[in-house]
Write the structure tokens for this entry.
Amino acid sequence: MIQRPRGTRDILPPESRLWAAVEAEAHRVFSGFGYDEIRLPVFEPTELFVRGVGEGTDIVRKEMYTFADRKGRSLTLRPEGTAGVARAYIENGLGQWPAPVRLAYMGPMFRYERMQRGRYRQFAQIGLEILGADTPAADVEILLALHTFLAALGFDDLVILLNNLGDPEDRPRFIARLKEILEPHRAELCGDCRQRWTTNPLRILDCKVERCRELVAEVPPVSELASDATRTHVDAVEAALAELAIPVRRAPRLVRGLDYYLRTVFEVVSPGLGGDTAICGGGRYDRLIADLGGPQVPGTGFAIGEDRLIEVLPSAFRERVLGRPVVALLPLDEGAAVARCFALARELAARGLVTHTEVTRRSLKAALKWAVKLDARAAVLVGANELEAGAAQVRDLTEGSQEAVAFVDVADVVAGRLPGPETVLR
Ligand code: ATP
Ligand code: MG
């Protein structure tokens, strides 16, 4: 039997309904803040990620799905969305649009990772980017949209961690300090960190290996050596969020795994996933577009890991989406009875109910059993007698009661009796 590749998943119904609902909510909330979707290729020239994400990052060093196409061009399945957005901004001349340019994206990303809970080789992200504003206000707006979206899904226990990564100019000073403190212990660092020492020393701060963590605890946080301008910036972000009653926690040791971030960086963590597992990561990236050969355009954005988000989705949202009442339509004859059932199904579906019409010629007894298996709350029976009378038999499958309801009233009666199908319709 052929199996799916390691690290990929089949998302089956009804779970897939949650994904669709989360994405619909994202479109609704984000478009309300002026962010419409940009749809980008799933593969890009490898060079884009090497230059955009950064040569020394874990993503580029060991996580990319890179392949040569039939003409020998090196392509890579996108490991993240921001580099592609930056490329599209340059390529489509979005600098001509009124600034700032607000964009949302969602879709699959690919990273060659070791499989574990919440970590897949194909996973989905939902992200926002605001391009062309270097102000704290742009960062605030991004975090406001993020917070509003998460609140709309019913989250109330998520924590936004915020840090100041300083400007690239602050980094040599910081790295010198880091190396000064860690030099005597260099041999004790893990293999990855010994390599990071030359390729990406900042990333040592983020190592999950116990001994590395202990050593890193001696290093003063990046934010302490960051310039005053960057402090003023991030302090302003924090103050504005407080004003909006959006709780954030300063995390002086938070660094991000992508090279392009500076100043404001943040993550969202969930108690449900454990402190180390982020649902969302983001920050400011003022040099990315210039580094890719475009104009000097500042930006801020975030990416939510949709797989992880869905894993900890509040139960009220889950129930609202998954709990839509099911109605079984059971034609007791061929022909006109089937047509009548479909006509009723159309009306019931329009009212937000989930219909399942029996189309395999089951006997009435078998059809009712089937309806119960589907968890249907009601069954609508239409046979020759019902067609003659112009009324269906509507059976309440919870109580077992049954009554005749005129065809024209079936949708109203059934929808009126079942709890809250309209709450799923917006
Ligand atoms: P981590 O530290 O967990 O590896 P990251 O810093 O590599 O995360 P980002 O590049 O910031 O992650 O991506 C943003 C979000 O995408 C993460 O917070 C996470 O929710 C999600 N994500 C990243 N990698 C994966 C993966 N392999 N599987 C599922 N979700 C992922
Ligand atoms: Mg990672």
